[in-house]
Amino acid sequence: MAEQMRDGLWELTAEEAALARAAAGRLADAVGPAAVQGQLAGIERLRTAIAVIAISLAHTHGRLAWFLAQAATALTPVLDWRALVADERQAFGTRVPEPGELTDDVVRHLHTTLAAAPDRALDRHRP
Predict the structure, then answer these.
(1) pTM of the model
(2) Short-list 114, 17, 8, 120, CA closest to 71
(3) How far apart, in whole angstroms, are the C-alpha atoms of residue 61 and residue 68?
(4) Burial of residue 22, with CB atoms counted within 10 A of its CB: 0-12 exposed, 13-18 middle, 19 or more buried
(5) Torsion of Cα atoms, 54 then 57 then 58 then 61, to 10°
């Protein structure tokens, strides 16, 4: 997204910029600051991030929708995870993730991209 905007291939509309800002804010709320992340399980934070992306996706179309759809797709492995130990026969194919898999880095990067994009879009249209 940032590369396409930098190269002049994509200029966000005011509506897209507003949606990107709103999505960035909701992602920040979903993941929370690093100091308080322990209050919410990593799986739950990442699942909430997918929900935020899906809700944002439902309110747009075009390139921003495609970008958000790819972001949601990148996070879909989280949907196969479970936080609880369970009998494999009753776990519906879910698995407990490895410790290194529980990371909010990708969501933080997405947040940064969405939060910065509107500023660049708005700056381009200022006299």
Answers:
(1) 0.77
(2) 114
(3) 10
(4) middle
(5) -160
The model's pLDDT over 79-97, given as tens digits with 9 standing for 90+, comes to 888 888 888 888 898 988 8
> pLDDT under 50 in the chain at which residues?
121-122, 124-127
**Residue whose tokens read 């990371």:** 103
Place of tokens 């994009």: 117
Question: DSSP string spanning 43-88?
Answer: HHHHHHHHHHHHHHHHT--HHHHHHHHHHHHHHGGGGGB-SS---G
Q: Which two tokens stand for residue 99?
A: 């410790």
For residue 55, give every residue at least 6 positions away whose Cβ sits within 8 Å of its Cβ, in sequence order, or none: 26
* Interacting residues of 22 by C-beta distance below 8 A, sequence separation 6+: 56
Q: In the block, which residue shows the tokens 């990442």?
A: 46
Give the model confidence (pLDDT) of 109-122 as tens digits.
888 888 887 555 44
